[in-house]
Amino acid sequence: MLHTEYASVAGPIVAFIDQLRDHRDKQIVVLIPVPLPDRLRYQFLHNHFDLVLSAALRARPDVVCARIPVPLHVTDNEGPVAGR
User: Fold this and answer.
1) Which residues of the chain have pLDDT under 70?
2) In 10 A of CB 63, how many CB atoms?
3) Which regions of 1-84 does DSSP assign to beta strands (E)?
4) C-alpha span between 58 and 64 (Å, rounded)
5) Radius of gyration for the alpha carbons in the chain, expressed in angstroms and rounded
6) Distance between CA atoms of 24 and 41, rounded to whole angstroms?
7) What confidence score (pLDDT) does residue 31 get?
8) How far from the centroid of its chain's Cα atoms is residue 29's Cα?
9) Which residue in 8, 34, 55, 59 has the most C-beta neighbors within 10 A?
10) How far apart are alpha carbons 62 and 44 in whole angstroms?
11) SS3 of 50, please?
12) How far apart are alpha carbons 14 and 20 in whole angstroms?
């Protein structure tokens, strides 16, 4: 668990990955979940964090970013639920 004083999420994750790069000589794979809402009107609710993080890690040759789509489905009586 990474803690930060500010609303920035990408900064602490990039710093953590840089610490891993300093102590290891192997390639690092970062899996980034990308929410895919089933309705277009819910798309604006997601902050596109995947694009920010992958852009921040793009200059590091030993780090591979994989954006994994995660479908979100909404039922009539519930809020968004992953994996249904």
Assistant:
1) 74-84
2) 19
3) 28-37, 63-74, 80-82
4) 8
5) 16
6) 43
7) 94
8) 12
9) 34
10) 32
11) helix
12) 10
